[in-house]
Amino acid sequence: MSNPVLVCALRRINAFKVLADELKRLAQCNEKLGKSGSLLQTVMSLTPEVMFRQAILFFTETDFVTEYASRLLKPICFSCLGTEGWSCCAESLLTYLQTGAQILCTVLLIKPGAWSRSLARILQKLDLEQFHVVGMKHVNLEPDIALGLLSSEANQDPAVLEAHCTYLTSGAVLVLCLQRPNAVKKLIDLLGPEDPKLAQACDPFLWRAQYGTSTVQNGFYGSKSYQIAVRDTKLFFPEGLCCAECQALEEEEV
Question: Where do the Nucleoside diphosphate kinase-like domain residues begin and end (predicted)?
């Protein structure tokens, strides 16, 4: 009781198992280092129910629920304050914690040249990674749409900006809307760095390492966040998706 403690509320896919494994590894490292009083002492919640009861002791609902999670929890009365407020929201929040990973959608754009040479292999890779294709379009990008897909770094250099825009509008692209748990991060992890040489150095099996030739002709564009994925889905698939059972996108009225 004499020393302060650090309390963290963490969120990720398969959080309880991953954190338990990491704390076990940390404990093993501590044993090797010796029994020093300065070693980190940790304790974690073992179930969603216990986590919920412990979290409300330290956090307000505004602290505890992220912007993304709040969308998944609708309808919830976020205006409620104090114990009464937590009580009215408890059932929905606990249901969210117990549900686990939500099915999300993300957008993969296969750039000119890459899809025409390697579409069958790319679709096979998507299937192996348990992505479901719920939207597909073969389109020619307008310059303003191409510019909207570029990163802030590319927008800072007019020459780089022009090179990207020229390439993206040089031929047809294939746009896929993909669905699976944790879809946005999973796709970004598979694509790797935007520079194919850097991707090759990190892991030769990254998709940009295999299909890219330069930072401009790097094979793919993928939505970089949940918010961007929603934007991209609305942009390329305004008519809706094929058999999409995606709660988050339904909340965004896609």
Answer: 103-243
